[in-house]
Write a structure and sequence with these properties.
It is a single chain. The chain has 146 residues and is mainly α. The chain has 7 helices and no strands. The longest helix is centred in the middle third of the chain and has 38 residues. The structure holds zinc ion. The site of zinc ion has 8 residues, from helix 3.
């Protein structure tokens, strides 16, 4: 693994889990420049965002699975249905809690918004000019940032 080009800045970034989305734009400059220059921190940033998003996806899937189990128990009415139902609900509650904690404590939602914006920009750039011109000015500014 490469060394951080500026360990002091790298340490600050590590403390933030390489998330600078919460910083005011005028404060971000130096850190953005560090990400541009430092391969190690860039890699770490990517890794952390992948972890955040995986956690949220996993919690969503798990919440869905518990809900499905709850529905199946209601439908098939096996023996000890009440305990199974309670178990499924507890599992759902726990997954929902994890989801919430990840959504609040990590920049995963911002990363998803960023990815969506990049996707929208991509689609926008491929649209024929006559359709692009019909898009409301406000929307165009939002997508392209100019
Ligand atoms: Zn670095």
């Amino acid at each position: 693994m490469n060394q951080c080009v500026e360990p002091i800045v790298g340490k600050i970034l590590a403390g933030w889990r390489y998330d600078i989305s919460g910083l005011a734009p005028e404060m971000r400059g130096d850190y953005e420049q560090h990400f541009a220059e430092c391969e190690r921190c860039r890699g770490r940033q990517k890794l952390h965002r992948i972890i955040d998003i995986s956690l949220i996806v996993l919690a969503s899937v798990s919440a869905g699975a518990f809900l499905l189990a709850f529905a199946a128990i209601r439908y098939f009415e096996p023996r000890h249905a009440l305990w199974l139902e309670l178990g499924a609900l507890a599992g759902f509650a726990l997954s929902a809690l994890i989801w919430l904690v990840v959504a609040v404590a990590t920049p995963a939602p911002m990363a998803v918004v960023d990815a969506a914006m990049i996707g929208a920009r991509h689609v926008h750039d491929r649209l024929p000019a006559e359709i692009r011109d019909r898009l409301p000015e406000e929307l165009r500014v939002k997508i392209t940032g100019s």
